[in-house]
Write a structure and sequence with these properties.
Length: 399
């Protein structure tokens, strides 16, 4: 690590999903440390106006838009389409920040991994659906994967300087979302507007609904399994409504380490972009007396079965986590458009997980096949119009 007195070369950064919630916060971090970061590439799903502002700001950066709206005018020199996005992801860089929502991040993430570039990922869906493929390819290329997800960043911080053999379990904290105390008998009536009102974090719509069902925590259990190479039986979840403790690691001597901070994604973003270096003043320090007492509660599996469904998918392995992820993406998208009730989401995902075939040591093609199978199955169960909600890893989904 560089000493405080040296002036290291700026880290070359590629931003994928640059105009979404995490992407904008990454831009905010980068803008505050202009001598530490140099943006060399930016990619967005369809937001041409947002991308144009970033292209002006970052001068020489390569720019690609995955799926501009029909008729939209794309500036000269920009790449268009998923292949163009993958080319930007694979360009020479020190870190590729992946902040594309959902399965659409898969191919660009793999392009960065195959290029051997460190991937700082906020998109847990990639590790969930293709964790085994990602692991095999990153071993081959030497690419490292660093989590931006606050829980996994917390675990990464708790594990620094520790012997992996001394870890007894990981404890992910969950806010419990907006319906932690709502009568489950009324879950069928939950509207998208209610589900989008997260008590502690301000995020994009897909992940916010996942936080309301707690499927987000289920996806994070699978993400932790692949990131830290630890068995599912040693990953636990506790509900922590104030989101001050971001996660914990318990060690074999009985000690537990926790990482605390204000709920501000700029902290894990900055830490990941700077490869573990702590940059000054990224966020205000937590005012712990004002935030006390810090409650930790067991997860109620009856109220929120999603974590159990995800564990089941992870335990079955192979392509089943990809089925879990795809089924959930279709359900959430349908819920946001009024085509699926809130209380149907976890049940439909669970049925797909049980019906999914197990394919051991899946290839990328196996993963994509399973993804498509799950999307068609759930779209059929919800009687969605043909083609609706089927945008998968080849689709858009990026903010
Ligand atoms: Mg998280």
């Amino acid at each position: 690590m560089d000493s405080a007195n040296s002036s290291p070369a700026p880290r070359r950064v590629v931003l994928l999903g640059a105009t979404g919630s995490i992407g904008r916060q990454a831009v905010d971090v980068i803008a505050r440390f202009p001598d530490r970061f140099q943006v060399v590439g930016v990619v967005a799903g369809r937001d041409i106006a947002g991308l144009r502002a970033l292209a002006e700001r970052f001068g020489d950066a390569r720019v690609a838009v995955v799926a501009p709206d029909p008729g939209a005018e794309v500036p000269h020199g920009w790449g268009v389409g998923l292949d163009a996005a993958c080319e930007v992801a694979a360009m020479p860089a020190d870190v590729v920040c992946v902040a594309i929502t959902g399965a659409a991040a898969l191919r660009p993430t793999l392009a960065a991994i195959d290029a051997g570039t460190t991937v700082a990922t906020a998109t847990k869906e990639v590790l969930v659906m293709a964790g085994e493929v990602v692991r095999a390819r990153s071993r081959r290329s030497g690419a490292r994967i660093v989590a931006i997800d606050s829980e996994h960043s917390a675990i990464w911080q708790c594990l620094r300087g520790e012997d992996p053999a001394s870890v007894s379990r990981l404890i992910l904290t969950a806010s419990g979302g907006p319906f932690r105390e709502r009568d489950p008998a009324t879950f069928a009536a939950i509207t998208p507007a209610e589900a989008l009102r997260h008590p502690t974090w301000n995020m994009g719509p897909k992940i916010t609904v996942d936080c309301a069902t707690l499927m987000n925590k289920g996806l994070e259990v699978i993400e932790a399994h692949f990131l830290f190479e630890i068995d599912y039986s040693r990953i636990d979840v506790l509900v922590h409504p104030s989101s001050v403790i971001h996660s914990m690691v318990e060690f074999r001597d009985g000690a537990t380490k926790a990482q605390l901070g204000v709920p501000d994604m700029r902290l894990p973003i900055a830490l990941a972009l700077a490869d573990g270096e702590r940059l000054p003043g990224v966020a205000p320090a937590a005012d712990l007396p004002a935030l006390s007492p810090l409650h930790l509660l067991p997860l109620d599996p009856q109220r929120f079965p999603a974590v159990g469904v995800a564990r089941r998918a992870g335990g079955r392995g192979g392509v089943v986590p990809a089925v879990l992820n795809a089924a959930n993406e279709v359900c959430v998208d349908a819920f946001l458009r009024g085509a699926c009730r809130f209380d149907q989401i976890t049940g439909l995902v669970g049925e797909a997980v049980e019906a999914a075939p197990v394919v051991s040591e899946p290839s990328l093609e196996d993963v994509l096949d399973a993804d498509g199978w799950a999307r068609r199955r759930v779209a059929g169960a919800l009687a969605l119009p043909a083609g609706a909600a089927l945008a998968g890893p080849g689709g858009v989904g990026a903010a």
